[in-house]
Design a protein that fits this description.
By secondary structure, the chain is α/β, with parallel strands linked by helices. The chain is 34% helix and 31% strand. It has one domain. 35% of the residues are buried.
Length: 255
């Protein structure tokens, strides 16, 4: 599996790099290619009961989300309400995972992403949320972006209410890390993110990509099991010989 994911991560990066050679002044187009590359990868490697597309989420009360780069939803039990080409509108209850994709990101765009994920609060849907960055900032820079975010109102740092709307997982590919929301013990007991890698693969794209894929796959597994009488054999069973460990933390607010 390691050699396979090493090949896939290089393939993903190569496709984006090739696009940038020809499309230097059209960042939205380059971003669309990055999304398409990741959507294709997930569609090829997730169970057939789900679909991986771009589009919008709608609630039974008529609430409509902002556009989503990648939606993973239950296409076996739910059909889209609307489809125009490769863009769909799907019911909130069908959504399993939501992924925002960036080819690169600076402080202003990172802050826009935080606001983007907070916009889903009114939908009150149960889905795992991801930020995936192909050309990612360094982990120290991500930490700085969190602490320079301008909170609305008088309270100027994250708390339990605002933390729940941050992405559950943040994956960077180059440089590479895989951040997961977690309880962290750093200078204090706090809530924030832990950065995970497989042992002996710290900082590698293969480790980050594999952990990202397994996280998405586990979200799909949990959803399918919730609506099935049978027990699935987790995909993680094929990774028994690999141990993931947290090696860095982003401490956002005290417990």
């Amino acid at each position: 599996m390691s050699q396979y994911f090493d090949h896939v991560s290089q393939q993903l990066h190569s496709k984006i790099a090739q696009a940038k050679v020809y499309i230097k002044k059209h960042n939205p187009t380059t971003g669309a290619l990055a999304e398409a590359v990741l959507r294709e990868f997930l569609q090829e490697h997730l169970p057939g009961a789900v679909s991986v597309e771009q589009g919008f989420i709608i609630t039974s009360e008529g609430g409509l989300s902002r556009q989503c780069d990648i939606l993973i939803y239950d296409s076996h039990r739910y059909a889209p309400f609307y489809r125009a080409g490769d863009v769909v509108v799907v019911p909130a209850e069908s959504v399993i995972a939501l992924i925002e994709v960036k080819t690169s990101i600076d402080k202003a765009r990172f802050h826009e992403v935080i606001t983007y994920f907070q916009s889903f609060a009114s939908l009150q849907f149960q889905a795992r949320t991801y930020l995936f960055m192909f050309n990612a900032p360094k982990l120290e820079t991500v930490r700085s972006h969190f602490f320079t975010y301008e909170h609305p109102g008088s309270y100027k740092e994250f708390d339990h209410d605002t933390y729940q709307y941050l992405p559950d997982v943040i994956t960077g590919l180059y440089p590479s890390y895989h951040l997961v929301k977690s309880y962290v013990t750093f200078d204090r007991d706090a809530m924030g993110y832990l950065s995970y890698f497989y042992e002996d693969q710290e900082g590698s794209a293969i480790s980050a990509l594999e952990l990202f894929f397994l996280s998405v796959y586990s979200a799909v597994e949990q959803y399918i099991e919730a609506y099935s009488s049978s027990k699935l054999a987790p995909r993680s069973e094929h990774h028994k010989n690999k141990t993931a460990k947290g090696i860095a933390a982003i401490d956002l607010f005290p417990m």
